[in-house]
Amino acid sequence: MPVASTTDVLIVGGGPAGLAAAIAFRKKGIDCVVVEARSPVIDKACGEGLLPSALISLARLGVEITARDGHPFRGIRFTDSTHQVKADFPQCSGIGVRRTRLHSRLVEHASEAGADVRWNSRATLGNQNSALIDGHEVKFRWLVGADGQASSVRRWAGLNTFRKESVRYGFRRHYNLSPWDEYVEVYWGSAGQIIVSPVADDCVCVVYVTRNRHCNWHQILDEFPQLQARLQGVAMLSQQRGAVSATRKLHTIARGSIALIGDASGSPDIITGEGLAMAFRHACALADAIESGNLGSYSRSHKCIGRLPHAMGALMLTMDRWPSLEAGAMRTLASNPDLFQELLSFHVGAKCVSELAVGVSDSSAGF
Ligand SMILES: Cc1cc2nc3c(=O)[nH]c(=O)nc-3n(C[C@H](O)[C@H](O)[C@H](O)COP(=O)(O)OP(=O)(O)OC[C@H]3O[C@@H](n4cnc5c(N)ncnc54)[C@H](O)[C@@H]3O)c2cc1C
Fold first, then answer.
1. How many CA atoms lie within 13 A of 164 on its CB side?
2. 76 Cβ below 6 A of ligand 1
3. Is this model's pTM higher than 0.85 or not?
């Protein structure tokens, strides 16, 4: 199929953010071309947990993810070497979904919506409003960088300056095991965390995340003999995949007719589990802004979308950095599960700071 020579929006990157944006634009009747360097379906290292907020944003785009796509989980459980505590999501369950399944659902919806997706293609950006795609010139009115952590659109547009940046490393595996818990489990060890998400009736996704890129799987797992025993000798269903988990805040995410979304526009640490939910919310907010011809409103929405995940990410990275603080926090939360419930409700946006403050002042004596 020949590439259209003009389009309203050129989206660079056909991962979750780029495809969600394409769906959001097409729902508003806005033409778009998506350029993706790889071919579908695209796999990536991910904890594969979709929080309720991600499911709500996807539903807003008409993408209904159900238990048939993966495996539901009702909340989060934190475990360290001596304590554990769990809490339920107040609104609805989350769903663990294999990354390839999520991508194929998004591809299907983008295609049904009429998005022109160019797989195995790269855009060479020329002047402000044109690009070469597979040797053909395409003129566009708006350019969207949905090209992930190492965004070339971000660099090209001169938006590559950060207010905050730190890096950890995440590694993902799939094990052929029936999920044993109704919660996503987060194990807090001295070298990092292990996150276990149910993703199918016969599969769990296990991610470990650490500051030390030389730290290996066994060093972290040794601290959790029970989990180690569960995984011992079980067949792996995928090759281990790694990716950088960057905490990044940009000075500017939109300029002129260019906007960044998803990881290209900054990200909280993966321990928040919020990356995908944020990307889908960016997509909806950007489509609203472009429809009204005003990227200023997108910049404001973007700030608002990132505020809570970044705050919670900072809190959890502080626990990661200071083992004594982590141990104290776990002790307090384990003896006061209502506080953990309050924090989770806050984290998923079901409670605001003023409501939370009551719970914290009542119960923070042990911190
Ligand atoms: C280990 C790990 C675990 C995680 N766990 C979770 C979790 O449990 N829940 C959650 O919500 N989030 C999680 N995240 C975060 C989540 O994976 C990201 O937020 C999400 O992938 C962002 O989507 P994106 O489309 O912005 O970027 P990406 O998924 O990186 O997609 C970018 C796309 O752009 C393409 N591209 C790049 N450059 C070009 C170019 N020049 N031309 C054309 N195409 C290009 C790439 O091929 C890629 O397909 C995790 C992240 C990591 C690293």
1. 12
2. no
3. yes
Report the pLDDT value the prediction gives residue 32, as an integer from 0 to 100.
97
Mutate to test the pocket of ligand 1, among 276, 282, 347 (most ligand atoms within 8 A of CB): 276
Fold of 6-70+95-165+250-319: FAD/NAD(P)-binding domain (3.50.50)
Are 249 and 163 in contact, with CB atoms under 8 Å apart?
A: yes
Q: Tell me, what's the pLDDT at 127?
A: 77
| Ligand 1 atom with minimal separation from the 242 CA | 1
Mean pLDDT of 37-56: 97
Ligand 1 near 269 CB (within 6 A): no
What's the CATH superfamily of 167-244?
D-Amino Acid Oxidase, subunit A, domain 2 (3.30.9.10)
Judge if the beta carbon of residue 170 lies within 6 A of ligand 1.
yes
222 Cα to the center of ligand 1, angstroms: 29
CATH 3.50.50.60-classified regions of the chain: 6-70+95-165+250-319
Q: Which residues make up the CATH 3.30.9.10 domain(s) of the chain?
A: 167-244
Q: Residue 57: count other Cβ atoms within 10 Å of its Cβ.
A: 25
Exposure string of 276-307, with b = 16+ CB inside 10 Å and e = fewer, is bbbbbbbbbbbbebbeeeebebbbebbeebbe
**Residues 289-342: pLDDT tens digits?**
999 999 999 999 999 999 999 999 999 999 999 999 999 999 999 999 999 999
